[in-house]
Amino acid sequence: MTDDGVEEFEVPEEPAEAPWPPQAIVRPADFRSVDFNLIVRDLKSVYDGRLETEFMKVTRENRDNEPAFSVYRLLASACGMHFRLHDRAGAFGARMRLGNGRTPIPDDWLGEQTDYLFEILDDVEHPALRARLADIVWTNDRKKGRAAAIAVMAYCDCVEGLMSGTYEDRFPTETEVSLEEVDLIERASQIHSMSNKRIAPMNGRVVEIIRALYARALSHTDVVPLYRLATLLLRYSLITMDQLAADMEATAAAAEQKPNPYPLAIKELWDLAAFAHKEANRPDEQRRCQLAGVEQTLKMAPQTGSSSAAAHWYRQAIGELRQVPGTEARREELRREMRILQEKSLEEMGSFEMPLDLSDVVSGTIDVFEKLTLPEGLKQFALLVRPGNAAKMRKEAAEAETGIAGMFAATHLDSEGKIIAEVEGAPLDGSPPSEDWIKSKMIQHLQVRMEIAVKGQLEPARRFLAGAFPISERHFSFIVLQSPFVPRHHAATFALGFARLMQGDMLSAAPILIPQLEHCLRHVLINSSTDTSKMRNDLTQEDRSLSTLIEAYRQELVAIFGEDILLHIELIFNHRPGPALRHEFAHGKVGDRSYGDPAIYYGCCLIYLLVCIPLVPSWNKHVAPAIEAGSF
Known about the structure:
632 residues, mainly alpha, two-stranded antiparallel sheet, 8 strands, 58% helix
């Protein structure tokens, strides 16, 4: 009783749900003992989140009912993964990470469970569920080509259902073609392309759907879906450059007239049209489309809420105009509007292209790697990095001084127009040029070699390995843990970096791997009884930087790595002018260019070589068996 005579009732608390046990292995007999198809048979959606919700609901209802609980729980987990269509690390990831825990990923079902899922694919009725399970099976075991084919057809069923209205779009949309349709058909094209020989044509049903979606998007001026579909047609050589240019220009012009146009989306169409004209060797038309794209960039400025944001789009437009000849006056006008002055030399800079056919090199590389097992492929990938002979490189650089160009001093600028190095010209009196001049020429030659190595051998080999095997951190753990180049407490970092490298995710791989080089050199020197620290005036100690390590301990490093490798470490990671990757990454200056810079790609592969070199003599005896044992 309370003081005013009201009787109090104590509301009992609901008991907390007991933690769920680890996911049990679900066998085909378990699946077939439960009518799991009934749960989603009438579901008018192919969105994985809707399927997850339905299966999670019945999972909770069957908490004490096996095998139903394990069956529904597994299907809910499979549908609940994060779908990452354009992530080079894989199409599926954890939806949530908390501390050391996370939601499921395909790796959790490697081996036995993958085989059991493969057995029940034909029993699955709902196309979205069938597509997801078949995709997981193929992701985990690339040898199961039938699973890939089932996934492709199931994704096609999903898209056709969305197009016909059998299934509802995930989100309400004003466009005729939804991005959900585009995502699903693109995943179908990815799987077909990766599960077949590189010369195999695209699946006919996939092509038919892409063309149908493209026609719809074109007729309704659906800018964003149209761009995505056009790139798919272009990727698989399903459209001519003339048609592509005409379609993109017409749609971009029509989209500009619609209410509330989105400039960046329209800009992508103009840029695609410019690319088509370039490929068709129409420079005037290419230039016109490039300028139209720049104007769309500028139209973003009034849509921002601050002057600094508007200035960003002016700066972006100026950067784009640098790729278009004859736009100095327009650039100067934009610079005045955003009140930024830049170096006059930056305005006069240009670029040139040198055609180089590497098709034979690429084919030869793939032919070699097609015959290799995963452990041998990982070893041979490291050995593709062949540092040139230091004495020969120096000789070639010295011979390059002949000619008038070698007599002039050179000024090197960074991406913002700031001067980062100046190199004096070669002497006119016949005396040898300076060491800086020699190194600047070696870097010029090395940049060409790196680009050839990356595009002709390293990237084709990486694409093949990533397509043939589901490579992840666990494969590289067996390598880094045995390498004397890697400090023990850095092993997981290297394994993650190499996995991202092999998955093609340079935006992740480069920032992970490149900062590790300096400490690994210290680690190797310390293990050879060389102290790399220095004492300050206040008697505190600090480690020496990469440049100081190379200068102060050159003899020791040459004795360990050899002159050829050490020269490449210096030119790629330290010297200015040059990539100076250690400095660029340490100061956060690289940004998105790590995705396509051959020097960064080659630098990461050079680090992989340094890790693998000590293991090559014992690779077949110790490293290869460990990789094989942990692969599946």
